[in-house]
UniProtKB/TrEMBL annotation:
Family membership: Belongs to the bacterial histone-like protein family.
Organism: Geothermobacter ehrlichii
UniProt key word DNA-binding: yes
Record protein name field: Integration host factor subunit beta
MF (Gene Ontology): DNA binding; structural constituent of chromatin
Ranges in a coiled coil: none
Alphabetically ordered keywords of this record: DNA-binding
Any GO CC annotation of this UniProt entry: cytosol
Length: 93
């Protein structure tokens, strides 16, 4: 499912216009992104949680040239699946 499919599903389920459903989805995603930018944590019970992990600088290698390069420190969002979602996905196994 992509973003436009999510908007369509919301519009159909709640009898909203596509434009209104799109505004709602954008508001949710923008709020989540802003929380992560500010260093916050997002937890959706039964689904999972989002956090930002810090990665230190390290010496890496350019795979094309083999040259050793300095990789700068960075922050990346990380998703940890919740127990309920994991169980639903693995229900038939």
């Amino acid at each position: 499912m992509n973003k436009s499919e999510l908007v369509e599903a919301l519009a159909d389920a709640k009898s909203l216009t596509y434009k209104k459903a799109e505004e709602i989805v954008n508001l949710i995603f923008d709020s989540m992104a802003q929380t992560l930018v500010e260093g916050g944590r997002i937890e959706i019970r039964g689904f999972g949680s989002f956090v930002v992990k810090d990665y230190k600088a390290y010496m890496g290698r350019n795979p094309k040239t083999g040259e050793i390069i300095q990789v700068k420190p960075k922050k990346l969002p990380f998703f940890k699946v919740g127990k309920e979602l994991r169980e639903r996905v693995n229900k038939d196994r």
